[in-house]
Write a structure and sequence with these properties.
alpha/beta, TIM Barrel, 9-stranded parallel beta sheet, 12 helices, globular
């Protein structure tokens, strides 16, 4: 059993959903990221999602785009982020998911990229601009290295397409809660709940479901967990704290930890 699957199973046995926390690697500088991740873990985040900054982040809203620019301006590379992942894995042992666009994988080559990610302790990959129709070789090499391939489904995804996506997905299925790009929203929409229900029907409970895009408040987390999701993904909320406090590390780390703690409490069923 792979690490991400084991994490979801252990949390389910305790009556909890998973809190997945995203930050852009290298924002505001690479030396900060391990300490930011430590604050996330201390706040209760169960799975860490590290973004590799890319110059054309088509799925990201303005908050994460700004974080990407900051990270690139200080020279953050894919290797930088993977080295951070390795450090985090050694220290904390939490499952690590890398979010990257396909261009860095293509430049490095599938074998080279997956060998490096495996050596750095990475457990899963999310590649927003890679459709399953072009993912056969990617999936084959990922499986050879024991790395989960996490694909996305949106409210517009048909049930037939959803089943096709599930055939390529391991670790968890990333449910995009809204139309558009990442970014905090005020409330969980009805279409998000309908997407969770459709995905539950398609998976039969075999693949964990995690909801992202627009999840930023404890009530959002509670809503998606109570409606059948196994996890909630929060990104822009954490990145905003980093942006606001990038010149005051102590305040930044405390706010990240406290925010994560509130979000994690909302994953506990029955509260």
């Amino acid at each position: 059993m792979r690490e991400i699957e084991r994490t979801f199973q252990n949390l389910k046995a305790k009556g909890e959903g998973a809190l997945i926390g995203y930050v852009t690697g290298g924002d505001p500088e690479p030396r900060y990221t391990p300490r930011i991740v430590e604050a996330l873990v201390n706040g209760g985040v169960d799975i860490i999602e590290l973004g590799i900054p890319f110059s054309d982040p088509i799925a990201d809203g303005p908050t994460i785009q700004a974080a990407t620019v900051r990270a690139l301006e200080v020279g953050t590379t894919p290797e930088t982020v993977l080295n951070i992942a390795s450090e985090v894995k050694r220290k904390h042992g939490v499952p690590i998911v890398i979010l990257t666009y396909y261009n860095p994988i293509f430049r490095m080559g599938l074998e080279g990229f997956f060998k490096l990610t495996r050596n750095c302790g990475v457990d899963g990959l999310i590649v927003p601009d890679l459709p399953i129709d072009e993912a056969y070789d990617y999936k084959k090499v990922a499986d050879a290295y024991g790395i989960d391939t996490i694909f996305l489904a949106a409210p517009s995804t048909s049930t037939e397409r959803l089943r096709e996506i599930l055939a390529y997905t391991s670790g968890f299925l990333y449910l995009v809660s809204v139309f558009g790009v990442t970014g905090a929203r005020e409330s969980v929409q009805d279409l998000t709940i309908r997407l969770i229900k459709r995905a539950l029907s398609a998976t039969g409970g075999r693949t964990p479901l995690a909801v992202g895009f627009g999840i930023s408040k404890p009530e959002h987390v509670k809503a998606v967990i109570l409606n059948g999701a196994d996890g909630a993904i929060v990104g822009s909320g954490f990145v905003k704290i980093i942006e606001k406090n990038r010149n005051n590390e102590q305040v930044m780390l405390k706010e990240i930890r406290d925010y994560a703690h509130k979000l994690k409490e909302a994953t506990v069923k029955g509260r």
